[in-house]
Amino acid sequence: MPPVPSTERAALEASIRAKVNCEKAAYNMQWELLEPGVTAEQLEAAARVLQPSHYEDIVAERAIDGLCGYPPCTNAAPLKGQGPKFHVSIDDRRVYDISSLHSFCGRECARRSHAYATSLSTTSLFLREGVAAALAPATAAGAEREAAAAATRQDAADARRSGAARVLDDAIPAYAFGVMGLNEAEAATKTAAKAAATRAAAKAKTQRAAEGNASSRSTAERVGQAGLGTTERTVRMEYG
Q: Where does the sequence pass through the membrane (predicted)?
């Protein structure tokens, strides 16, 4: 397989980065629209970035948080499970699923939200505008959020580095103390061995002295017994 030319590789890498940045822009815009009281400028900027699927997620998340699904509205959404799920139309002779209305405070917000969702493009931002779409955040709030995220990542990296430095600072004294403890233990072992050898030598000396005394007593007894035998024979010869 022939190698890919460097120019094509660079273009491919730039395209992949642009796609990722476009997805990141949509993700940041979703977070902006989850806040209560979204402005008209934010909603207009979001229309350039979001697709209908992105907006559906925003409506669902706002309803879970207890907010009306239409981002500019500050009213609360009905509690989950309240209200009918279906509407029976006698004129049309049809049953309509109206459970999606529970994500809004009223029919007017539901109508506006539906109109906004249908105005969004189903084509991704990257396919619509290319690499240029990923060069700048959609709004100033998005730029601030990106800067805050970068600062948070930098703080986390600094914390990891400082934590590693503290561990190293704690490990050096511990290592030195461990070496000192090993030296002290070795010296104590040598002292104990020397004392044991001294005690063994003293015990052996005492044992040899005791054996010598016992040998002397045995010799004296033999000499005494021999002397008594000689005296007895002499008496017998004199008075025989």
A: none
